Amino acid sequence: MSFKILIADPISESGTQVFQSNNGHFKLDARSKLSLEDLKKAVVDADAVIVRSETKITADVLAAGKKIKIVGRAGVGVDNIDVAAASRQGVLVVNVPGGNTISAAEHTVALLLALSRNIPAANDSLKRGEWNRTQFTGTELQGKTLGLIGLGRIGREVAKRCQSFGMRILGYDPYASEDYAKAFNITLEPLETLYKEADYLTVHVPLNETTKHMLNAKTLLQLKPGVRIINCARGGIIDEKALAEAIKSGHVKGAALDVFEEEPPSKDNPLLQLPQVIVTPHLGAATEEAQVKVAQELAETIRDYFISGTVRNAVNLPAMGAEEYRELEPYILLTEKLGKFVTQMFEGAVKELKITYAGEISQKNTTPLTLAALKGFLSPILDLEVNLINAPHLARERGLKWVETKISQAEDYTSLITIRATSEKSKLSVSGTLLAKNNPRIVAIDDQSVDVPPEGTMLVYTNIDRPGVIGFIGTLLGQNKINIASMRVGRKVTGGEAVTVVNVDHTVPEPVLQQIREFSGISQVRCVKL
C-alpha cells in the first residue's frame, strides 16, 4: 500500500530520505508557496501533509483533504494549523517538540563563554587594528556559581555542559522535585538564593503572566553584584530598560541576549548601545543539525504512524471515532482547565495527582481526560509544547505520580471530575462538572462549594468569613483600576473558612496581590488565568 505525503514547505533532505528508503510505501509530492486554491487541490488525494511555518492548514484545507490522516509540523509551534478542526475530522496533528533542545543549550553556553571572555568586543577591537590585551581580561567559569531559572529540557542540558567547566549549579523551578534536580546534580534552591549567590544567571522558562518581567528593576537589585545574565528563552522575561540601567550602574556586569520583547529590536533599544551586552538575532534553534533532526524526526513519526500505527509527539487527541470525540470533547476541555487551575493555585512541588471520575463519566473512556488533566497541569510551567501524548512522559520525568479513580455515583451531579493535588506539606482539590448544554463549571475548591465558569482571569483567595473582606477587595481592585466581572463565595459555616473567586478583566499585579496577602484574615491568594 502506498501513502501520498504532500510536503508543502521545504524540509531538510534527511526527512525525504526517510520516506524514500521504505520500499515504495510513500509517494512524495514536494511543492511550496502554494496559493490557498492550489493547496486545496493538492491535498485532495494526500494521506499526510508536512508544513513548517509558512503554509496554513485551515479548516477549509482539511475539508478538501478528506483522505488526510496526519498533519506534521516541522518544528514546535502549530499556530498555522487548525488543531480543533483536525481533531473533529479525526486527523492527527504532530510536531517535533525537542528538536532544538541541544542547539538552544549550546547557544546558551556559547553566549556564557563569550560574555566571560569578552570575545565579541576583543574581535571587533583587533579587526580595527588595535591590540588591547589588558582591556579584555576575562574571568574563569571554574568555581563560579550558575543559577538556572527553569529546569526543563534545555535547562538540564545547560547544567550538564556547565558542570564540565567545574561550575556549581543552583536551580530554581517551583514545580521540580528534589529527586528530579538531584538526578542532574543540580541543587534546588529558592529564587532568592539564586539571586544572592549566582555569578551567572540564565533563564529557561516560558513567557507567561508569571514570568513576564520577572527580572525587573526591583529583582535585578537583589542579584549578586557583578552578576552576568543570559537569556536564550523568551523576550519579555527580562525588563530590558531595567536591565540596561542595572548594567550602566555596574550592578550587573554584563548580559548576553538571543531574544527580545520586540523582534527585531528597535534601533534605540538601550541594550544595543552598551558594550557590556552581547546580542544575537534569535539563533537558539538555528543550526544545520537542528533542521536535520527536525525533518528526520518528523518523517520518522509519520512513517511509523502509517507502517506500525505508533503515535508520537501528538498535539491533539489520538484518532477516535467522530461520535466519541464529540461526546468527550467538553469533558476534555473541562479537565484540562481543572489541571491548569491546580497548577496556578498550588504552593510548592506537587507529588501526586488523584483524578476521580464520578457518575456517568466514570463509564466512559476517561484516558483522554486524564491526559488532558496532565497537559493542563504541566502546560503553564514547562518551556516546551505539552500535548496529550507527551504529558505522561513529562510528568514521569519530573517525578509526578498520578492515580485515576472511578466511582459509579456522584452526589448532586450527573457527572463530577475532581483533581486532588498533594505534596509533603500541603494539598488542594478542585471539582468540575458540565451543566445543561455542556456548560462547564468549577463547583468546589477544597470541598467548599462554588459555581464558577472556568475561563478568563480569576482572583482566588481563602479567608475567614467575616465582615469587611469583600469590601476591602472591591476597594483595592477599584483603586488599581481592575474591573470586577463577578464574585462568588463558598463557605460551609458562617464565620468559618471561606473561598472567594473574583472574575476580573485583567491580571492582578503582584504588588496588589501582596497587599491582599497582608490583609488580616486572608491566608492565601492567587491570580489564576484560564
Task: Explain what you see.
The structure is a single chain. The strands form 4 sheets. This protein has a 7-stranded parallel β-sheet, with helices on both faces. The chain has 530 residues and is of the alpha/beta class. Helix content is 33%, strand content 24%. The longest helix has 24 residues, at 322-345. The protein has helices at 13-20, 36-42, 59-64, 83-88, 101-117, 119-127, 153-163, 178-182, 191-197, 217-220, 240-249, 288-308, 322-345, 367-378, 391-397, 469-479, 510-517; strands spanning 3-7, 26-30, 48-51, 70-73, 92-94, 145-149, 168-172, 187-188, 200-203, 227-231, 252-257, 277-279, 352-359, 401-407, 415-422, 427-435, 439-445, 448-452, 457-464, 484-491, 497-504, 522-529. Helix 14 (367-378) crosses helix 15. It is globular and about 80 Å long. It has 17 helices and 22 strands.
The number of strands is: 22
Give the radius of gyration.
26 Å
What kind of sheet is the major sheet? 7 strands, parallel
- Please tell me the overall pLDDT: 91
Structural class: alpha/beta
Which strand-content bin applies to the residues? Answer: 15-25%
CA-CA gap between termini: 45 Å
Q: Provide a count of the helices.
A: 17
What low-confidence regions span 5 or more consecutive residues with pLDDT below 50? none
Query: Which strand order do you get reading across the main beta sheet?
Result: 8-7-6-9-10-11-12
Helix content: 25-40%
Shape: globular
Give a short overview:
This protein has 530 residues and is of the alpha/beta class.
What labels would you give this structure?
530 residues, 7-stranded parallel sheet, 22 strands, 24% strand
